[in-house]
Amino acid sequence: MHVLVLFAHPHRASFTGELADAFCEGLREAGHSLEFADLYQEGFNPLLDGGQFRLETAMDSESPRPEDVQAEQVRLERAEGLVFIYPFWWSDVPALLKGWFDRVWTYGYAYAYVEDRSRTTRLKARKALALCPAGHTDEKLDALGLREAHHRVMVEDRLLGVGIPEARLELLGGLSGNPPDVRQRILERAHALGAGF
Ligand SMILES: Cc1cc2nc3c(=O)[nH]c(=O)nc-3n(C[C@H](O)[C@H](O)[C@H](O)COP(=O)(O)O)c2cc1C
Q1: If you classify domain 2-195 with CATH, what class do you get?
Q2: Which tens digit of pLDDT belongs to each residue from 104-122?
Q3: Which of 110, 119, 132, 188 has the most CB atoms in a 10 Å sphere around its CB?
Q4: Closest Cα partner for 86 from 127, 49, 50, 37?
Q5: Can you tell me whether residue 172 is helix, strand or coil?
Q6: Is 90 in the pocket of ligand 1 (CB under 6 A)?
Q7: Given ligand 1 and candidates 7, 19, 90, which is best to mutate, with the most ligand atoms within 8 Å of its CB?
Q8: Model pLDDT for residues 51-106, shown as the tens digit of each residue
């Protein structure tokens, strides 16, 4: 499978970056091909401006989107698998990645309504994974309902909700204070997820 890995952390040399390396190593070992998109390093502009706002709310599938958005969509065309790797910030994706969805998941591309108000999509990906390290422990993420909340938003709305048939979240908690045993366990998990993708 050809997999597009979308990485959203300001530092490639971070724990999230190490996790991405472990995941990609597993992916390669399993024989997948991959394209690595470092959204911060590429300078992706996450701000949906007034011009694109008008295009999205006009719901015209045919009106051309900004060139940088079209370039993202061309890259998505090649991907059978999509993997988002990002740190859990204020119980969500970093703002850069939120803006990526605002701008790239356009009307007419990620979703469009057909006559009976059901949705269609032009997305090619058959499978998606959100891979997200977090500071809170797994117990705290569960007790506060944050895993469930992020699953609903990221998986059910942003991924399954636009018609990707299979999507899941791996929210990997316990990183506050950077305990070495937790880091090691999470890196092993990331490698296994890549190998089993
Ligand atoms: C701005 C910011 C917001 C954060 N918000 C949360 C949060 O809401 N919940 C949580 O569990 N961890 C939170 N964290 C901790 C990060 O999720 C954790 O440090 C990260 O997953 C570790 O990866 P890194 O060392 O690669 O940054 C936050 C960290 C930062 C910098």
Answers
A1: alpha beta
A2: 999 999 999 888 788 899 9
A3: 132
A4: 37
A5: strand
A6: yes
A7: 90
A8: 999 999 998 888 999 999 999 999 999 999 999 999 999 999 999 999 999 999 99
